[in-house]
Amino acid sequence: MRQTLICLMLPLALAACGSGAKSIWAPDEAVQKAAYVSGKAPSVTLYTVVSTRTGAGGHSGLMIDGTQRVMFDPAGTWYHPYLPERNDVHYGVTERFRKFYIDYHARETYDVIEQTVPVSLETAELLRRRAEAYGAVGKMLCANAVSDILYDAPGLESLPKTYFPVKLEKAFAELPGASYRLYHDKDPDNNHGVLLVQQSNPIFGPTEDDTAAAPRVATAQANP
Questions:
Q1: What is the tally of helices (H) and strands (E) in the chain?
Q2: Sign of CA dihedral 141, 144, 148, 153
Q3: Backbone angles phi, psi at 171, to 5 degrees
Q4: CB 14 within 8 A of CB 107
Q5: Residues 196, 159: contact at Cβ < 8 Å?
Q6: What is the DSSP string of 19-75?
Q7: CA-to-CA distance for 54 and 155, rounded, in angstroms?
Q8: What is the pLDDT of residues 148-183, one digit of tens each?
Q9: Would you say 129 and 193 are in contact if contact means Cβ atoms under 8 Å apart?
């Protein structure tokens, strides 16, 4: 499944909310250089990692697409050396890195649910500012952090504050215009230890052609 990837195996303990509240602060120059504009309409995308065995939620992450696209991955174990990070906010999230994020979390014991809703540019920027100001998130508090960011934002007023990823996912599904996609993967459970370290391969660098990367999914479903 990973012939094209150069991977580093590390003994990480959990798919998702596995890291403590460790502060990381990339320098201004790196953040500014990495800024990626998708050219798409403003939106916010909720990622929910769900156990294939129990249906319980394992992690929540939030991609915000406004004047630039960032990933808020509170208490997450995912990272990439090309993406500067500031306290759980990752900058430079191109399409290729968005797919890496999904691929990292999806495996035989966890599915990934991707839900996107359109928002105004003002709302997207509000959410990004909230994420940037939130600070490093402690383990097991991912859904709480994401719901704090989303809470009472224009157009998202129906979303609750919650500690439970699946509760947030179900509420997100009720938002007007919400899309739904389910990602399966047959990678083994130790997939959580695979970090996408592509430094020796220029195709994964800043000049990548993002349109060439196909998502690694077994199945995808439209919103029922």
A1: 5, 9
A2: positive
A3: -70, -40
A4: no
A5: no
A6: S-----B--HHHHHHH-----SPPEEEEEEEEETTT--EEEEEEEEESSSEEEE-TT
A7: 32
A8: 999 999 999 999 999 999 999 999 999 999 999 999
A9: no
Identify residue 90 by its one-letter amino acid code: H
Q: Region 20-33: what's the mean pLDDT?
A: 91
Within 10 angstroms of residue 76's Cβ, the number of other Cβ atoms is 28
What backbone phi and psi angles, to 5 degrees, belong to 149?
Answer: -65, -40
H-assigned helices in the chain: 28-34, 95-105, 121-134, 142-150, 165-173
Contact 192, 112 (CB under 8 A): no
pLDDT tens digits for 88-142? Answer: 999 999 999 999 999 999 999 999 999 999 999 999 999 999 999 999 999 999 9
pTM: 0.82
- For helices 121-134 and 142-150, angle between their N-to-C axes, nearest 10 degrees: 140
Distances in Å between the Cα of 97 and the Cα atoms of 135, 170, 217 are 22, 25, 15
Q: Do 59 and 101 form a contact (C-beta atoms < 8 A)?
A: no
